[in-house]
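Hey, resending since the last one bounced:
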Amino acid sequence: MVSPIVASFTEWGFCMGNEVVDKLKKKGFMDIQLHQIKLGLSEGLPVEIYAKSEFDWFQMEEIRKGLKAKIDASLYARSEIPYEKMRQIRKGLQDGMNLMPYVDWNAGVLKEFRLAKLKDIDLSAYIKQGYDAQQLGEIRKALEQGITLEPYIDKEYRAASIAEIRKGLENGVDVSLYAKKMYSWRKMRELRLGLENQLDVSKYSGKFYDWEQMREIRLGLKAGVDVDSFSSVKYSAKEMHKKRLDLLLQTHVNGQAFYKQMEASVSNILSAEHSIEVHNFPVDTAKEKGLHNDNNVKLRLDKEHLKLDLRANNMEAYVSAEIPGGIIPRDVLMELLNENRVKKGISDKAMDCLCNGEYGQGPVLIAQGKIPQKGEDGWYEYFFRTDVQKKPKVLEDGSADYKDIEWFEVVKEGQKIAYYHEAKEGTDGYDVFGTIIKGRKGAEKRVLKGKGFRLEEDKKTYTAMFNGMIRLEDEELSVINHVELDEINMTTGNIFFDGSIHIRGNVSSGMTVKATGDIMIDGNVEMATIETDGSVMLKKGMNASGNGMVKAGKDVFSRFFDATTVEAGGNIEVDKCLNSQLYAKGMITANRIFAGGIASSESGFHLNNVGNHAGLKTVLKVQTDETARNDYHNILFNLRDVTRQLEVLKKNHTELMEKHTAEERSEMELFQKIEHAVFLKQKQLDKMKELALKLKKVIDRQKLVSVVISGNAYEGTVVEIGSGRWEAKDQYNITIKQQDSEISVYNN
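The structure tokens again:
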């Protein structure tokens, strides 16, 4: 029932007097509920629909938002409907769907059903089977990508397990190897990551491993170490971790710095001028032993006059003698080495030097281990050109070469497009004891991601699924539907194609060419419409006589435009542009002439010779991203509202903290609601602040945009940046930009 007090202050608008507030509080209204009523009044809404004490403030907020969005909020303005369900019903109504027939579903299921419906996906079959909201979320994400999860999923799987199956299918791995009930989602993740990195997951797919053991074995395989030495299930994950790190240290031989040191030592031992850091015995010690030699007579040294040092993780053995240049019998040296278990990497040259007394002061490197070598990393061999540039080559005179441009490469169904060469095993090394140090296997590459191809049974060969255009961008391989046509005219009719189009001839007036991929036209384009989500390349250009347009989601390239309307989500690049209307989110570039018409860009201009001698009006506008600017101002406005709501919630939270003991609060549903609300509002506030900061950076970056004119800026040229306007007076080689709300002009 509507409070008569509310009815009385509805006429007052936002101004609620203290008397009214006190009366509402006495009727059980809390500050946060009053806040929603005040907001509704300030927005001119009929608050009587929700100004009832039986609604909590979250329910009030959802009803208020529905009224504000001009939907029929009375459909869900029922106190028995939790606010989470109200929210999904409200959002559904705003999107043109009525979810009230499904009000018995929980809020999470309603949300996933609504989001799926927006993409023309029906989850009702999965809902009937009993999948919960989190599971439905993963199923929805898969279906949005065109991925069918059957036969791999089951409602007994947790949502996290279904997510691992979804991610595996998205990345092209054989999920049947881990989509099993014996694996938890964490085990599935370890197997998926191994498969994506082309590792031998059979090394750790046993059901008795826990996920942490799996992780250690996977990381060992990825690092190329010998996992067989620690992969037994008898080792705990902690023990595996230690053994893996020990192997890494061993194969790295104390890191890259030591590799360099060892390589230097190898060079030195092979050098006739081999010298080493001095290590002196005290002279007094030699005298006491009767070994001091003033006449430079070479003495015969026994084992007790020698010392053997092991260094660098037992990779080097050094012999030091108390008397430099003393003769050391070979059998004495061998006995010394055997006693210290040095048996590998012994240098014959060093042995000869020591036996003949041909050495100076300091230790002599007598044995050296072999550094293990890491194997060659895995790599992909591609059977198509990966360096095709999607833009014309600029010639010496500044113009662009549209004639010989290669814009894409086409492959045929079943054609081999890539082959994976597996990583090679490393070469083992050893220390001076003869202990083998396993060489690390090279790193495997991840499985190729993308679409339009299949991975053959050998798990190495990639083939095209159909005839199409192929491209490799950011390590993602795609084969896209592609059609080649001779020309487009009244005989052929208009073209609408899901993929890329290559037209070898002309496009006649009145025709329409639409595609989802790229469009390349070799011939002339007349008064036609060219539209695509991708990029457009016009090798000869377009003369639309004011009745044709090009619209691209990405970039547009053309030899010339004459009386043509062009819109691009990316850049526009043209050699000559006459009397045309251009708009680009990216940069607009004219390599030779830009005269007449209007051009707008959010990223700036780089033009040669703007206008003409006759003073043809040519307008260049630097546009700001109004969407970003509007979003920024809306967020700032909403920030104030959310901040106020948070302050009210915190006030109520503090009051309850002061009035009730911890034990009382733990059983108080109202307190738990407020505490949860504080958490959610704070989280919302933090996200809004983060988004506001990102938008502010976009807006600030736009302030740095400039217009660069190389060559003539003829009279009749007008540049508009923000609210500023500048007109050229036959100037040459200039840059125009806005500083402190005023336009400034600089010489290039």
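The first strand starts at residue 306 and ends at 311.

Sorry for the duplicate.
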